[in-house]
Each structure stands twice: as structure tokens, then as C-alpha cells.
Amino acid sequence: MKQPGTVEIYALPRLKYLKSFYGKMKKRITRGGFSLSIIFIYLLAVPVSSWSFRGKDSGLQIMLPPDKSVVSERLIGVVLSTHGNPETVLLTVNGKDYPPLRTKDSYICKEIGLTEGMNKIDLRVVGKDGVNKGKTLSIFLSSALSERLKSPPAGFRPYHFHRSEHVRECSRCHEMKARQSDANPGSPELSSCYACHKEITGYRFMHGSVSVWSCTRCHSGSDNELGSAGPVSKLCFSCHYNEMKTWTARKHAHGPFALGACTICHNPHASDDPFFLRKKTTDLCLSCHADKASGAHVVSGFSGSGHPVRGRPDPRNPKKELTCASCHNPHASDFAFLLFKDLGDKSSFCRTCHTF
Q1: Domain spanning 61-159 has what CATH number?
Q2: What is the tens place of the pLDDT at every residue in 94-146?
Q3: Pairwise CA distance, residues 177 & 172, whole Å
Q4: Domain parsing of the chain, residue ranges
Q5: DSSP letter at 32?
Q6: Does the N-terminal peptide bond of residue 65 adopt cis geometry, omega within 30 degrees of 0?
Q7: How far apart are CA 280 and CA 271, in angstroms?
Q8: Which residue did the predictor score with more confidence, 14 or 176?
Q9: Distances from the Cα of 17 to the Cαs of 22, 43, 44, 86, 132, in angstroms?
Q10: Cα distance between residue 230 and residue 245, in whole Å
Q11: pLDDT tens across 306-324, in order?
Q12: CB 331 within 8 A of CB 324
């Protein structure tokens, strides 16, 4: 049954195309003309929305990213080509509707936010004739912080936008090669990266180089292949040199820091959480140390309840919430368990915050 408010557009707008098709076929067929005529009449009665022409574009082409892509960052650019036909594209991501997207020179570029795990991106085209057509992308956002999210489903492939085969079409409208001035553009709008990546400014905290759009401070490459300028730890410590000297001198190092894998915990671009953490502090820690969520590793009472690990003011810094980092240094320490001071006889450590 036709839904209220829907309009069926029949094949008459394609009559010119069908006449040409019919004429060519009629020349090739010496018998069965009656059957061909029946087919021609049938096609006129079929709604356009049910047609399927091999090699004939449906009006919307998803240029990037490919379906069943795997990415590691929350923001992803979606590039569409409408071939000048539709006027509006309706975008829904994981059930959330975005404002309608308008075509510009037959293309639409939109950077959208993903959630960890599987993401469904639904696209519906509203053309001048009122016909809606839909396509869906499946994108998997992986995370090194979860065993469940480390490995994508079968059939999914890693996707990196800045590859020569991907940016060729975009170069029609955008400057895809980094300019020398991108090391210090002066203002965001002057950066070659800003037009496509400006959504990153929507986060509360931006990494230093990102905040001034000095993208080539960390990204480099030739022929549009803009990867990181070197191993992550080497790149991070080129700015955070003093911290590196301090932490490497400690007796005990946290796993990610010891491996030089800074981006396991920190987003190198931006985050809604301080220090560009990928999650809130305690949530981040519990991603690997789930067994510490009860707080029983600190102290456990007769009721089985443990020391709080969140939801209370930090006694050492009352303006902040109590987190795992209230007691543990997330990078390195001279004391066991990465504690901020020697555990001693335990009671002396506890008296740092408690009076008894």
C-alpha cells in the first residue's frame, strides 16, 4: 500500500529514452514484434523507483568511503556525487538525522562523527521529481581499548582517505596537496585542510598543532599520501621532550607509554575530555583494567563494597572528580603500581586523603 504523502512518478519522463531503445531493438528483431510492444507498454506502466538499468547511474554515487570500511578515528568524510540531478540528500547516522545536505556543483562533502563499533550511514536522495532513493554504508570504528573492537567483521577493509587513488576526484574542487604555508597558515581558513576537516573544531579540547591548523607539523608525505611524519612516540616526544625525559627516568612505566603508543589513550587531534583522552579518565582505565571497577583492589569492606573510583571529589584536588589518576600516574612512577607516592605501611598512604 502506498504510504501517505508519497508520490509515484511513472515512466513517461523516460519516454524519449524508451523510444530510442525500442527503435534499436525493433531493427534487430524480425519476429516477435508483438511481444516487444507488450514489453514496451509494460515499462511505461512501471514506477521509476522500481527500474534497474545496468550501467545507468541511480542519481547518487557514494564516492568515499567504500562500504565495509574500517577506520580508527571518530570523524570520517563522506563524499557524494549527485550528477546534478537531486537537490537534497538526507543523512542519517546510527538513527540520528543530520540537517539536509545541499548539492554544490553536483558534489556533497560532509564530515560526520562515528561511534565505536559498527556504524550505519543511511543516505536518501530527494530529486527535483520528488523521488527518494536510498543507499547505506557500513563503517566499523575500531578501538585498541577493547578486545571486541580490535578486530573488524569479516569482509571489512582498512580505509585511509589520503591516498592518491582516493583524492583524485576531490582535486577538482579542493587543493589536495599540502602547501608550504600549511606549516603556519596564520588562520584556520587559510589551511588547505580546513575545508574538509573543520568539524574537528567542534570538540572542547584541541591538540596544540591542530588548534593553529599546523597540520604538517605531524603529517607529511608526497603525492597526497599524508601519513604521520614518523613513529608515534618519536613524533609526540619531539614536542613533549621534557615529559619524555622525566618519565623514562622512572622505575616503572605504564604499558602504552613503555611501548611508545601514545595514541592508545590520547587522540592526537581533539577530544571532549581533558588531555585529549579517548574516554573519561576512569572509563579509559577500566577499558583494560575492568577488574578494578569495584575498587576492591584498594580496600574491601564486609559488605563487599570497595573504594570509590569515581563520582566523588578528589581530596587532593577538590575541584576535580576522583579518578584512577588520583592515586596512579598514567605514564610512569618510581613507586609500585604506578602510585604517586610510596605505599609504605598502607595507612600512611591512605592518610594522604583520609584522617583516622
Answers
A1: 2.60.40.10
A2: 999 999 888 776 788 899 999 999 999 999 887 666 656 688 999 999 998 88
A3: 12
A4: 12-50, 61-159, 290-350
A5: -
A6: yes
A7: 10
A8: 176
A9: 9, 11, 11, 19, 21
A10: 19
A11: 888 898 999 888 889 999 9
A12: no
